[in-house]
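Write out the 3D structure for:
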Amino acid sequence: MNQRELTPADYMAMLRRRWVLIVILAIVGGPLAYGVSRLLPNKYKSQTLVLVEQQTVPSEFVKPVDTTEISQRLASMKQQILSRTRLEPIVRQYGLYSKDIEHASVEDLVARLQKDVEVTPVMPMAETSAGHLPGFFVNVTMGDARTAQQVCTAVTSMFIEENLRARQEHSENTTQFLAQQLSEAKAKLDEQDAKLAAFESRYMGSLPDEEKTNLNLLMGLTSQLDAATQALARAQQDKGFVESMLAQRMAALQATQNGQSPETLDTQLAALQTQLTTLQARYTDDYPDVVKTKNDIAALKKKLAESEDEKKGQVEKNPKPKIEPGEITQLRTQIHTLSQVITQKAADQEQIKQQIKIYQERVQSSPAIEQQYKQLTRDHQTALDFYNDLLRKSDQSKMATELERHQQGEQFRVLDPANLPDHPSFPNRPLFALGGFGGGLGLGLGIAFLLEMKDTSLKNERDVEFALHLPVLAMVPQIEPITEKNGKKTTDGVPTETHVGVGA
């Protein structure tokens, strides 16, 4: 049989032949496993459900400082709470594992407690937001039900206290850090303000936003300079004209007093001065006619000076009171007034030129100043934006810290307190019995199959054909010997068939 392919009929035949062994092992397995479970020590499991409550104030108004996912924070708190430092006081307080305390170290006892404490997150439902953990279970398994409840309560309290402490400490540290950064940012902003104020004070009037104003003022000053130049030229021309008239009147007066002809040197000088004024109004001082006229005037003035010396000598010899006519006095007054006007116009012209020079320098230096000003304003704006951003974050952190201090932020709340188990969670004796029954059944099936594989007898027509490679011609039933029971003749068993194979 172990060399040919088995059919379902073969397996059914095996079960009919070995059913007694299979049933015996299955029946014995259940009670045996139950008996073993009675020998194992009882363990009780206490469970607590902790709910993760969101902060009472909406996050749109006060953003939480700690934005770490609750699953990550729970894993971190689990490592801290289940550490040797945190669990050793619990071991000593409740006298855990007192039977083994003489043979085991504190580290071993803490390690056993770590295995007996189990923290299991509650899986969020599909409709909840992604990444939001609704809560978690705290399970503690101990040999005593009351101890399991007490330890579960203590561990749960440690989780709640650690969450409050960690969130409040994180908020306060964040607030302190932002306050320090805000102070440094304010110092940098004040420094940038001082630099910008000093620059604006130094280059007042040459700043980029004043360039258009400077151009407009420069154009206005240019127009004023043209007007002042024209007014000065007119005043000079008027003065020259009045001086020529005065010279003519003086020459006529002297000619009348000395009995000379009106055609004197003064008349010629007045004519030359008038001509020079006219030429200067049209040409520059380097023009040939202007130069020639100036030379003629200089020569004529020399002659006049010689003539005046002679007249002074005569006057000293024969002094006579000299009274000028009113027309000549009026002309002298006009000349004096025009001289003052010319002086004022010349001063105005020079002042306008100085102002034009200042504004030209401002316009010319405007690109370089603009580049420096842009750099200063950019640094100042960067410092201002950084300060405002830090100020906003600092205010939010302060509100979040106050929220945590009043315990209105995200916190853990016990939904189901630690229960007092009324029956052990291990061992589960019905489950042990069921497992023993299943194990015995499996063992019986395995032994029966092995026995069948080692059995080399021929049991049916297929075995004969497979072993002898010959067809079966006839089947002879097996007759059991006749025995007597209660006075009756019976056979000891049912008739069986003997297969006879005949070769060719």
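Residues 210-390 form one domain.
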